[in-house]
């Protein structure tokens, strides 16, 4: 995005500097003149756009705009009022960019598009429809609920990763303490006595020597593994399709897609989008992996005149029976939107229950792994000491 960096003088002839996201020199003179500033010089620079707003920030924004507009303000004035009361630095930076874009003649949906999460296609579509119909109040209420719903989903999924991360971190720290503090002392002691050292103890002592010499590698290893996995998944995006074949994760992944599918399509149908447009929006939202290809095929079949139920029946491996049955009933009784709303609530609750069930299942499993590894380390390091104590007792007797 082009940005003008300016130097101006105020009424007291003091120098003021700043930046404005526009490329028209006449506009910048007008805006500075309204602030009693006289332009001295300016130059065009390029500025990286701020990061998109998260769903927590968006839910606050939509609620505030809805309240301001209910009081009779325009979208531009409502945004300015919200800016005056904002205490979030990142949010304020983003909304200043949006406000400048609005003043330059852009529509609100296009102004805020670069600052929405990449997966938030439904909010953008609903805001575009509100600009056509003028029903901002209802749209802002729905996108606020949608943002809160996505935020709740994200927190549920993050909760599933929190417990294993804590357990693995504690286990990694305990093993580091054993290898860095205790094992070197044991190594120096074993060199002074005549005891046959088991193979596992020899391996642990070699690892301990390596940890003592390069302790930062031990600490950085988990982060290196995490970054490597992320880079690998970005370089080979097709690997994501195999996630649906992992036992335990398959059900959670499918439940998540069912919840998003029903919520996104229901909201778009509610605000005037056709079924084809709604499914194509869902297709753009999930364009990669096996499920992305399933959505592309469903979208193509609907564009060819096939009903949604028939299109879903062509992929029984990925579509649940409940979704198929309610869509079939909805198309017969013209209640597709109502049934999708019910499905969204059902799969949302089901997803949370399955994530919590997975966490409870992982708790004993991770404790067993942690206990086994610690036991191996303790036995490997302490066994020579017990052997030496046994020999000493036998010699004494």
Q: What can you see in these coordinates?
A:
It is a single chain. This protein has 397 residues and is mainly α. Helix content is 73%, strand content 6%. The protein is built from 15 helices and 3 strands. The protein has a 3-stranded antiparallel β-sheet with strand order 2-1-3, covered by helices on one side.
Q: Nearest-angstrom radius of gyration? A: 30 Å
Count of strand segments: 3
Report the biggest beta sheet as strand number plus sense, adding barrel if it closes. Answer: 3 strands, antiparallel
Helix and strand content put the structural class at mainly alpha
Strand composition percent: 5-15%
The low-pLDDT segments are: none
DSSP helix fraction? over 70%
> Number of DSSP helices?
15
Morphology call: flat
Name the average pLDDT: 78
Element-level helix/strand string: EEHEHHHHHHHHHHHHHH
User: What distance lies between the first and last C-alpha atoms, to the nearest angstrom?
Assistant: 86 Å
Strand order of the largest sheet: 2-1-3
């Amino acid at each position: 995005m082009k940005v003008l960096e300016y130097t101006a003088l105020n009424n007291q002839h003091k120098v003021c500097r700043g930046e404005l996201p526009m490329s028209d020199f006449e506009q910048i003179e007008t805006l500075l003149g309204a602030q009693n500033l006289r332009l001295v010089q300016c130059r065009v620079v390029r500025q990286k756009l701020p990061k998109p707003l998260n769903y927590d920030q968006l839910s606050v924004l939509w609620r505030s705009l809805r309240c301001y507009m209910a009081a009779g303000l325009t979208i531009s004035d409502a945004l300015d009022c919200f800016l005056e009361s904002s205490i979030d630095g990142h949010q304020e930076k983003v909304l200043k960019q949006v406000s400048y874009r609005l003043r330059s003649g852009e529509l609100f949906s296009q102004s805020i598009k670069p600052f929405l999460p990449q997966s938030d296609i439904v909010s953008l579509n609903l805001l575009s429809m509100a600009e056509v119909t003028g029903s901002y109040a209802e749209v802002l209420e729905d996108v606020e609920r949608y943002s809160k719903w996505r935020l709740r989903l994200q927190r549920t999924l993050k909760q599933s990763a929190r417990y294993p991360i804590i357990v693995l971190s504690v286990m990694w720290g305990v093993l580091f303490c054993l290898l860095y503090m205790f094992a070197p002392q044991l190594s120096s002691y074993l060199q002074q006595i005549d005891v046959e050292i088991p193979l596992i103890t020899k391996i642990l002592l070699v690892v301990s020597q390596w940890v003592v010499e390069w302790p930062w590698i031990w600490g950085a290893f988990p982060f290196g593994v995490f970054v490597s996995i992320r880079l690998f998944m970005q370089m080979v995006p097709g690997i994501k399709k195999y996630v649906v074949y992992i036992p335990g994760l398959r059900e959670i992944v499918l439940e998540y897609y069912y919840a998003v599918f029903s919520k996104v399509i229901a909201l778009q149908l509610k605000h005037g989008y056709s079924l084809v447009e709604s499914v194509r929006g869902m297709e753009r939202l999930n364009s990669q992996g096996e499920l992305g290809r399933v959505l592309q095929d469903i979208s193509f079949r609907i564009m060819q005149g096939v009903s949604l139920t028939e299109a879903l029946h062509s992929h029984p491996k990925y579509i649940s029976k409940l979704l198929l049955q309610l869509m079939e009933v909805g198309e017969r009784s013209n209640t597709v939107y109502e049934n999708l709303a019910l499905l969204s609530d059902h799969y949302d609750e089901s997803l949370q229950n399955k994530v919590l069930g997975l966490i409870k299942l992982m708790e004993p499993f991770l404790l067993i792994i942690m206990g086994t590894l610690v036991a191996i380390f303790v036995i490997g390091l302490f066994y020579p000491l017990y052997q030496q104590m046994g020999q000493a007792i036998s010699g004494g007797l």
